[in-house]
Automatic annotation (TrEMBL):
Record field: transmembrane: 109-128, 268-291
Glycosylation sites per record: N71
Protein name: Pannexin
Protein task: Structural component of the gap junctions and the hemichannels.
Heme listed as a keyword: no
PROSITE patterns named among the record's database cross-references: PANNEXIN
Gene of this entry: Panx3
Record organism: Cricetulus griseus
């Protein structure tokens, strides 16, 4: 009996989780994996395109090439290029014989519009960092710590039960005390469950998360409007007619009314415009899918932690509408599953519980570890029958 008792003690000691109080949760993830991908794409992609636009401008020199008259000197031709790039206006005769001016300013504003887009897409990230991350990090630290502590308390409770059973000379007294403890719910530690139940009535985190994704959709829609209204009209126009007869050159007869110019950077402009439209079109369903995660509970995570005493949110049907802070916290618990050491142990115990032949006697980790330690999870039948024979 002492050898079995020692083996049970070793098994229970190995089941205890190590104390990580010194280096507690340094790698806590405060962004969901999909949110991180969306952030890198929405912010990094415009910056990449901006660097491409600037690189093309620095490597190719002037972004336009004007066909100056043959009698113009080199300095005069350079002046024509500079003047036409500054004005960037296309002159076209209408049916009434009047010149109609069409601005081509999106070509000039391309790098700066990409920078503005990257800054706008980073605003939802800043909102999340300053409005939600401080509260979320404290919630996760407390919940992860309590989940692991609750598991450890259950293991220590089984160790204590094993010692009491070993020292008890009368098994009836031990089982009577154990059944009384179960009836009075001494084994339960309801602080964590009540805290999570309170989070169901809180909506600050979920409101910030919804606002973050809504802003992303809003800025994406604004990008579509900008591309469609300004870029689409000049997307395929490679040549334009420029007028330099302004100021002192207005009365010069040897200067032609219009000079034809060609946009040498049109290919880069087209690549940037089309790739931006494609990338942000792909991102829209990704953002919408990200929002749909708030419409369902992660019941697998909850079902595994149902093995802890006083953690029966599922069995008591305490879960209501999933759009609340508790669901956001569960999503981040899933993202930080590597920080939950108790999760792997409880997952194994859940699998073993489903394969055991005494499923009806096992509800919590206390019951299962009691069985593994060599104790019956409930009063043995021969003791129950003995009491019945003594007190018919």
């Amino acid at each position: 009996m002492s050898l079995a008792h020692t083996a049970a003690e070793y098994m229970l000691s190995d089941a205890l989780l190590p104390d990580r109080r010194g280096s507690r949760l340094k790698g806590l993830r405060l962004e969901l994996p999909l949110d991180k991908i969306i952030k890198f794409v929405t912010v990094g992609f415009p910056l990449l395109l901006m660097s491409l636009a600037f690189a093309q401008e620095f490597s190719s020199g002037s972004p336009i090439s004007c066909f100056s008259p043959s009698n113009f000197s080199v300095r005069q031709a350079a002046y024509v290029d500079s003047c036409c790039w500054d004005s960037l206006a296309h002159y076209k005769l209408d049916e009434a014989g009047q010149y109609k001016v069409k601005s081509l300013w999106p070509h000039k504003a391309l790098p700066y519009s990409l920078l503005a887009l990257a800054v706008a897409m980073y605003l939802p990230v800043l909102l999340w960092q300053y409005a939600a991350v401080p509260a979320l990090s404290s919630d996760l630290l407390f919940i992860i710590s309590e989940l692991d502590k609750s598991y450890n308390r259950s293991i220590r409770l089984v160790q204590h039960m094993l010692k009491i059973r070993q020292k008890s000379s009368d098994p009836h007294v031990f089982w009577d005390e154990l059944e009384k403890a179960r009836k009075e719910r001494y084994f339960e530690f309801p602080l964590l469950e009540r805290y999570l139940a309170c989070k169901q009535r809180s909506h600050s985190l979920v409101a910030t998360y919804l606002l973050r994704n809504s802003l992303l959709l809003l800025f994406t829609s604004a990008t579509y409007l900008y591309l469609g209204h300004f870029h689409l009209d000049v997307l395929f126009q490679e040549e334009f007619s420029c007028s330099i007869k302004t100021g002192l050159l207005h009365a010069e007869t040897h200067v032609p009314d219009l000079i034809t110019c060609r946009l040498t950077s049109l290919s880069v402009f087209q690549i940037v415009s089309l790739s931006s439209a494609v990338i942000y079109t792909i991102l829209v369903p990704v953002i919408i899918y990200n929002l749909t995660q708030l419409c369902r509970w992660d019941k697998r995570l909850l079902s595994i932690y149902e093995m802890l005493p006083a953690f029966d949110l599922l069995s008591r049907k305490m879960l209501g509408c999933p759009i609340n802070d508790l669901n956001v916290i569960l999503l981040f618990l899933r993202a930080n599953i590597s920080e939950l050491i108790s999760f792997s142990w409880l997952s194994v115990l859940c699998v073993l519980k489903d394969t055991t032949t005494q499923k009806h006697n096992i509800d919590t980790v206390v019951d299962f570890m009691t069985l593994l330690a060599g104790l019956e999870p409930s009063k043995p039948k021969h003791l129950t029958q003995q009491v019945y024979d003594e007190h018919p």
